[in-house]
Design brief:
Layout: H1 2-10, H2 24-34, H3 53-63, H4 65-86, H5 94-101, H6 111-144, H7 151-161, H8 169-181, H9 197-208, H10 210-213, H11 230-237, H12 249-254, H13 266-278, H14 284-304, H15 316-321, H16 325-331, H17 343-363, H18 371-401
Helix pairs in contact: 3-7, 3-13, 4-6, 4-13, 6-7, 6-8, 7-9, 8-9, 9-18, 13-16, 14-17, 17-18
């Protein structure tokens, strides 16, 4: 009651004619964090629905919680395993001092030690992302006189989860700035962007600073440790050699492998996807299309085979659990703004991503992961797909009525 009274007392300063009128988006942002927006439509027609932008974005953030928890655990696990193999002298800095001070240690068999150690890498990246990206959002909203949209909460979370734990914080800030400004705000803000802002920021960092975004040394933030991802091993030696590196299909499914912060666990991503499908935030046609494109093309490559490229032999159920496929399928293929909006178009859009991710992984030996580029490529073609679907529907109805 006291908080509500506080907002009501200061509101006149921010509404039209108030002393701080131009900063109303900032006031509205903080108020809408804790209370349902009071704005309603004032002209007909009226559509009653419990689903609004705030609820949609809240549901997506809730769906990422399993991936966040797995990010904390696996980041700490991989780091503690590296320390165990190299010795505790290999880890220095404030994180090591903090864990030692509280007697937590670096025992990889201790889930609490893994979670807390992972938190010390996840939290700084998320705070920088939220602060820098949020500042851009507030700036553009203030200049335009618009509300600060809750969409950035989703963008910030997804962006953090697709970064390596070793990403320098200045690069984190640069990437989210590029993603928010050039991936969304220059097109008008949330709902008007045709590319996924989180992927735009990640792609910018990948091509601008490849040494920090790829290779065997970026996935575990311990100096002197090198750990190849499942896809990198498969591209070099074939997926049949993964057992020699102590990597099983179940390891990849659960997520206890090298990779970006929140992308490694297929199980966590599928839990989040199930939640989005049940709440009808995600469209199942996009999921079916993406799975169909990936499974169909990987089966075709299995039949064709290759004597020189071991990736031709990778079956679809391995493509499902390695790299960022499952995470991208759950949270980025189903992103409603940049995806196709017609029912048939959603099948085609999803199938295009599934086809492209396998093609990039198999045919391009220099780029073992393909989900990021596949989704961005499909984002570009989504409006064109819808255009041709609508035109086809118009022609079909014209013939039927002729």
């Amino acid at each position: 009651m006291g908080l509500r009274a506080f907002f009501d007392r200061i509101e006149p300063n921010f509404v039209k004619g108030g002393r701080y009128e131009r900063y109303f988006p900032v006031y509205e942002m903080f108020e809408s964090m804790v209370y349902t927006p009071k704005t309603v439509t004032r002209v007909a027609p009226h559509a009653r629905s419990y689903v609004d932008m705030k609820r949609i974005m809240t549901y997506v953030v809730i769906a990422t919680i399993p991936c966040v928890l797995m990010a904390l655990y696996n980041t700490g696990l991989q780091t503690n395993l590296a320390i165990a193999s190299l010795g505790e002298d290999s880890i220095t800095g404030w994180r090591a001092g903090l864990l030692s001070t509280f007697g937590i240690g670096f025992n990889p068999s201790n889930p609490l030690a893994n979670m807390l150690h992972g938190l010390l890498y996840f939290l700084p990246i998320y705070i920088v992302t939220l602060a820098v990206g949020g500042a851009w959002e507030v700036l553009f909203a203030t200049v335009r006189g618009h509300e600060v949209n809750e969409g950035f909460l989703v963008t910030s979370m997804l962006y953090v989860l697709i970064l390596p734990a070793s990403t320098p914080l200045w690069q984190v800030a640069l990437g989210i700035s590029f993603g928010v400004v050039l991936g969304k705000e220059v097109f008008g803000g949330t709902g008007k962007n045709f590319l996924n802002p989180a992927l735009v920021g990640r792609a910018f960092l990948y091509f601008a600073y490849p040494a920090s975004m790829s290779g065997d040394t970026v996935w575990t933030p311990v100096d002197g440790f090198s750990g190849a991802t499942t896809l990198a091993i498969s591209a070099a030696e074939g997926y049949g050699q993964l057992a020699a590196h102590s990597i099983t299909w179940w390891d990849s499914f659960l997520g206890t492998i090298q990779g970006s912060l929140g992308e490694t666990s297929t199980l966590a991503a599928m839990i989040g996807l199930a939640f989005l499908l049940v709440t009808r935030i995600a469209n199942w046609r996009l999921v079916v299309g993406c799975l169909g494109g990936m499974i169909g093309f990987s089966l075709l490559l299995n039949i064709i085979g290759s004597d020189t490229n071991p990736m031709f032999a990778m079956p679809w159920y391995w493509h499902l659990v390695v790299g960022g496929y499952a995470f991208g399928l759950a949270f980025m293929v189903t992103e409603p703004v940049s995806a196709s909006h017609t029912n048939l178009g959603r099948y085609i859009y999803g199938a295009l991503i599934g086809f492209m991710v396998v093609m990039i992984r198999v045919v391009n030996p220099a780029f073992p992961e393909g989900m990021m580029l596949a989704i961005l490529f499909a984002n570009i073609f989504a409006p064109l797909i819808d255009f041709f679907v609508v035109r086809a529907n118009i022609k079909r109805r014209a013939k039927r009525n002729a």
